[in-house]
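Hi R.,

Here's the chain you asked about this morning:
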Amino acid sequence: MEKKLEKKEFRQYGAYGIIIKDDKILLIKKNGGPYDGKLDLPGGTIEFHEKPENTLKRELLEEVGIVVKKFKLLDADSVDFEWEFNNLLIDGHHVGIFYEVLEFENNIQSSLNIDEVNDDSLGAEFYSIKKLNKTDLSLIALLELEKLGYKLK
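And here is the predicted structure, written out as tokens:
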């Protein structure tokens, strides 16, 4: 008889940067969490008392190595997911505030170590949107690409 997993609610509130140049999008390689092994938008959790635009700047520095200089609010939306973790069935609701990053400084870091500051990005690089498969992407990245009008395989 199959053991039924205990269900637990999980809410994620994050701010994310979208950088698209020449039909290529900047994505991070995710390490850990419900999007482990997927390509995801750079960004992350809005800390207590932190403004979303400050989250954007902090997370892109941590996960990509860039200093965001100019940005504009693009969208806010959410996705739902289920994830098995530590004998629990996580019923997740992921809310994102999305910014178009217009200007940044520093070089994009294609390889990063996981540490106390950066807990989930293995580095970032530009990916051809036309070559991406839906199954390669986090749900939140897929949502925004489709809302921007991109048709993915």
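One quick note: The first strand starts at residue 6 and ends at 18.

Cheers,
M.
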